[in-house]
Design a protein that fits this description.
The chain has 174 residues and is α/β, with parallel strands linked by helices. It has helices at residues 7-10, 12-25, 68-80, 116-121, 137-143, 146-161; strands at 30-38, 44-49, 59-61, 89-95, 104-113, 129-135, 165-168, 171-172. The strands form two sheets. A six-stranded mixed beta sheet has the order 3-1-5-4-7-8, sandwiched between helices. The model has no long low-confidence stretch (mean pLDDT 92).
Length: 174
Amino acid sequence: MTGDAPLYERDPDAWQAQLAEGNATQPRKRVGADALIRDGQGRILLVDPKYKPDCDLPGGMSEANEPPAETVRRELKEELGLDLHAGGLLCLDWVSPHGPWDDSLMFIFDGGTLTDDQLANLKLLDGELHAYEFCSWQDAAARLRPYVWQRVSEALHALETGEPRYLENGHSRQ
């Protein structure tokens, strides 16, 4: 093949400027990350946020350039005083645009089973939550929005099988 060297070899600064321009104009996605945390009885930890009308898993939205697993760790520490490293990925859900929101990627990580000490030290810290509670799967299904429960039920399936799930709008693509 003949011709000029590619731009990245010929003019590295121009190449970096071209990449930066592409980065500035490409769409960005919102990213959220939650943890599926259980107590010794297998109940699921739910939180009751003040900023929405229904319960959710603990976690939240990622900050700019923040890895999703770190989002979970930061949110758990800020909201509940729980210093917990996220375990393995249970599911990733692509959520289509809805209402005023563009599409997003929602992660659920395995938060494991809390020890008695961790349970005793849980507390509401930053004012974003009304409460937290451990619920049976049946109670969680009744308290979560249907599409959130669909995602959680897929995460529970992944927990049982050891196989992470890829979802689109809460439905498995596997």
